[in-house]
Amino acid sequence: MATTAPVHPVDEVPPVRQLAVFGLQHVLAMYAGAVAVPLIVGSAMKLSAADLAYLITADLLVCGIATLVQCVGFWRFGVRLPIMQGCTFAAVSPMVLIGTTGGGLPAIYGSVIVAGLAIALLAPVFGKLLRFFPPLVTGTVILIIGVSLLPVAGNWAAGGQGAKGFGEPKNLALAGFVLLVVLGVQRFAPAFLSRIAVLIGIAVGLAVAVPFGFTDFGGVGDADWLGISTPFHFGTPTFHASAIASMLVVALVTMTETTGDLIAVGEMTDRRVEPRTLADGLRADGLSTVLGGVFNTFPYTAYAQNVGLVGMTRVRSRWVVAAAGGILVLLGLLPKLGAVVAAIPAPVLGGAGLVMFGTVAASGLKTLAQVDFKGNDNLTVVAVSVAVGMLPVGVPTIYAQFPDWFQTVMNSGISAGCLTAIVLNLLFNHLPGKAGSPAKAAGPDEASVTA
Question: What is the pTM of this model?
Answer without folding.
Answer: 0.74
